[in-house]
Amino acid sequence: MRVLFFLFTFALSIKSWGVDSKCEAWFKNGKIDRKSKKCVLKCSVLQVDMDTFACPLECEKLCDDPCKESERFWKNKLKDGRPNLWPNTTEKSKQWSEKEKELVTKALSKMPKVLKFELVELYRMDKSKDFPNPSSHGSHYITLYDSAFDSGNDLLRILFHELAHELYGTFSQEDIKSYYISAMWSQERKEREPSTMRSDSTFVRSDGRTSPEEDFANNMEFYLFNPVQLKKHWSPVFEWIKKVYSGKLTLECK
Ligand SMILES: [Zn+2]
Question: How far apart are CA 145 and CA 211, in angstroms?
């Protein structure tokens, strides 16, 4: 009983020491912009005294750095195991290495807001059934394979492509209709797959012909990473993306 009472008063006194409020005041005196991208760095070198010597450890909490926030957001999306009902049964899940987690969250934190989806989860698997395919997407899941981390591959570009698939999944019927017009897709009857009259040479990547969604993900990827190529292959889609996502596809946290 006595011990419990002691612990209780000890806990209360910690609260009354107000470590957090002292750090808040210390941070406020430093006059750092809470939302600045350099906030954590500037905070960590603020002068301290006997009362505030531990405050630099609180800098991440005190700052509202959008890039750090974004990294935390995406880090929570990296999952172990297999996605529910993953159709590719031959693909085996594997553990993320710490380095991979860091690389993936860093790349994801650069994504424009329009590609920041609450529902998305990312999984790590060994080898695609379509090797050397580096990644796959399916109903809110993104899977990264070993080849995504090969030196010749651009992780940022790979992830951007997969998130473009997710974006396509949010399209309304109106959005789909509008995209179909610019990319020359059509679907005569509901029970039939969409088709296109475009020639092979108008696709930035040949697998775009397999579906409007794959075509869309490829085109979004090229819009950002190879705009000249996209314009050359099929300029109406370039213009459509420019009009619909005007100013919304810029990478963040460079
Ligand atoms: Zn794709």
Answer: 22
